[in-house]
Design brief:
The chain is mostly helical. It has nine helices and no strands. The protein is elongated. The termini are far apart.
């Protein structure tokens, strides 16, 4: 006999308030830089009181930490659900991988940009631990590239695959999250930009004279 978990109206309202706060913060991060966002502004956007906001998140840093955990979980889940075995060729895999990463980063560039900057610049232990978890999950996406490189007879398939994958991730992040240096390239649709980036990554896999 199954047991039905009952949620009280108070618990349901509390969860709804939390969700509104999180979504309001995500929306604001797409509109302005994080240092310019105030807790009062978040509460107003979430249609909540400042007191209710501080009861859940005593500071902006605790709220940012919550958003970073949410981001990490999304990345890890995306990696675990990735259809790594569907590509029929190396080029198809690289292009498909790049296209999906472009789509993901373009879905919330403001929020992802700030979370990455926070991890790079401030060295918070929680952020560093999540980065390790995400990197472990991401390794499942570059290992199929190593398999393709081995089939091509590359002398160092794992090393070349890792460089190819890092090339894709770095270019996607820089073009989407920090577009100031890329001009009209940032305006290109995912399908065209994915081909360009994938070709850059494949150079690591066709060069077989590494030492």
């Amino acid at each position: 006999m199954s047991v039905i978990a009952l949620v009280s109206p108070k618990q349901a309202r509390s969860q709804a308030t939390l969700e509104r706060i999180v979504e309001a913060t995500k929306d604001l991060m797409e509109e302005k830089d994080w240092p310019l966002i105030t807790m009062a502004e978040i509460a107003e956007r979430a249609q909540s009181s400042v007191g209710s906001l501080y009861a859940r998140f005593p500071s902006k840093q605790t709220l940012l930490d919550h958003l970073d955990e949410d981001y990490a979980q999304t990345v890890i889940e995306m990696c675990h659900n990735w259809p790594t075995g569907n590509a029929k060729s190396l080029d198809q895999y690289l292009e498909g991988l790049t296209k999906q990463l472009l789509k993901f980063h373009r879905s919330a560039p403001g929020r992802i940009r700030h979370l990455i900057l926070e991890a790079r610049l401030h060295q918070h232990s929680n952020f560093a631990a999540r980065t390790e978890r995400m990197n472990e999950a991401l390794s499942g996406l570059w290992r199929p590239i190593a398999d393709y490189a081995q089939q091509l007879g590359h002398a160092h398939p794992e090393r070349s695959a890792h460089w190819a994958f890092r090339t894709i991730v770095t270019l996607v992040r820089e073009i989407v999250l920090f577009p100031e240096s890329f001009g009209t390239l940032t305006k290109e649709p995912n399908s065209i930009l994915a081909k360009r980036i994938a070709r850059s990554a494949s150079a690591h896999l066709v060069t077989n004279n590494e030492r």
